[in-house]
Amino acid sequence: MTEICKSWLFVPADSERKLEKSRSSDADVVIYDLEDAVQPARRDIARRLVADVLQQDVPTVQCVRVNPVDSRDCADDLAAVMPYAPRWVMLPKLRSPACADMLAEQLRAYDRKADDAEDATAVVAIMTETPEMALRLPALEALNPRVRAITWGAEDLSVAIGATTTRGADGEWLALYQQMRSQTLLAARALNIQAIDTLYAAFKDSEGLAQYAQRAARDGFDGMLAIHPAQTTVINTAFTPDAESIREAQRVVAAFAAQPDAGAVQLEGRMLDKPHLTLAQKILARAR
Q1: Looking at beta carbons, which pairs linking 48-53 to residues 24 or more positions away fall under 8 Å?
Q2: Parallel, antiparallel or unpaired: strands 223-226 and 264-267
Q3: Which residues pair with 91 in a beta bridge?
Q4: What CA–CA distance (Å, rounded) separates 181 from 191?
Q5: What residues contact residue 147 under an 8 Å CB cut-off, 6+ apart?
Q6: Taking the CB of residue 236, how many other CB atoms lie within 10 A of it?
Q7: What are the Cα distances from residue 116, in Å, to 50, 77, 84, 135?
Q8: What pTM was computed for the model?
Q9: Are 280 and 287 in contact (CB under 8 A)?
Q10: What is the mean pLDDT of each run of 10 residues along the chain (288 residues)?
């Protein structure tokens, strides 16, 4: 698995002001959005702006959300940005796993042209925006190895099925979207790639965001999408283990290291087995 990224911030790619502001973001990953955030008439402008920012020295990991892989816009997006080798490309609106294969093939062509190492740019795929892909999630056994993270979203799927809302009166996800969230997490774990929870749209509600992000970390997600710069600090905090959790994880790892041939060990009156070790290692990785 590639380095874990906690916060993934969307930035409209046609806004010079927002692109400039993103240079000082504390997000782990900044996603320059060439798809939903940009009107078709402004995509050429957005591509030029993203190409410029990809050539600048920025502290965050850079990602570009391209248009659906079977569109002409996607080919134009890649032609504009791939010469500058973003660390990630985000693929929206998959209809089947074959969409990831199509994108990977196009990326390999740019790898060869640039004489870079194979698979230099990784893919993060949005898995639930079409009914076709949503139906395939429960049976997903393989995905192109270039896909190293997956996430999910509710809005495009709700439009596709004709739903008028994604949440109930209590503010919680309706059953269908809870199912999509859970299946995205399970698929990521089965594939041993990163699981990224969807965004929290009420960007002024920092308390609600904190609660949602804490639940996402509790449930097993590695990180979360953000739609506003003010959200990234809250998300980073939620996905960073506190000092006591780190100390406990270190004790667990040390106990197993002291007995490398043991399937289970004792620690302070408790019996621990390998799942406890795996969880402790994950906590320490997230802390780093």
Answers
A1: 48/80, 49/13, 49/14, 49/16, 49/19, 50/13, 50/19, 50/80, 50/81, 51/80, 51/81, 51/83, 51/84, 53/19, 53/23
A2: unpaired
A3: 125
A4: 16
A5: 91, 100, 104, 122, 123, 124, 125, 191, 193
A6: 18
A7: 20, 19, 11, 36
A8: 0.90
A9: no
A10: 85 96 94 96 97 92 97 96 96 97 94 68 97 96 96 96 96 96 97 97 94 96 96 96 87 88 85 87 81
CA-CA-CA-CA torsion sign (160, 162, 164, 167): negative
Q: In this predicted structure, what is the pLDDT of residue 1? A: 45
For residue 43, how far is the Cα from the chain centroid? 23
Q: How far apart are CA 174 and CA 165, in angstroms?
A: 8
H/E element, 214: helix 206-219
Distance set, CA 61 to CA 6, 25, 122 (Å): 11, 11, 12
Euclidean distance between CA atoms 57 and 144, whole angstroms: 30
Closest CA to 29 of 166, 175, 184, 226: 226
| pLDDT at residue number 266 | 87
d(CA 192, CA 213) in angstroms, rounded, equals 21
- Residue 141 burial (CB < 10 Å; 0-12/13-18/19+)? exposed
CA distance 126 to 195: 11
User: What tokens does 188 get?
Assistant: 């990521």
**Amino acid letter, 221:** F
The DSSP bridge pattern shows strands 270-273 and 264-267 to be: antiparallel
| Phi, psi values for residue 30, rounded to 5° | -105, 125
Residues in the chain: 288
